[in-house]
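Issue 218. Parser rejects a valid record. Input:
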Amino acid sequence: MIKHIVCFRLKDNSEAECLKTKEILLSMKGNVPMLRGIEVGTDFLHSERSYDVVLQVVLDNAEDLDAYQNDPYHCSVVKTHMHSVSESSIAIDYVIE
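Output the parser choked on:
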């Protein structure tokens, strides 16, 4: 199993924008078939080093991670939104043991 985690810093980190972004990320559930699990959270601390939104997805293997990155729904809806609202992001992908 693979865990894919991305943290996003939004241009506008208002509560409304964070919640809208959370809902768009969660909309992948049922629309991106290779996902085995999805979790999205929003930051409440708002420290200087905080990111605003975190996405965690679980996939079966590296091939599914590649397929996820190119999935039509993920690309057209989610990536389009995230590129328009994100100031920066960081990611990590690792094998769940």
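Fixed in the parser; the record now loads. The mean pLDDT is 97.
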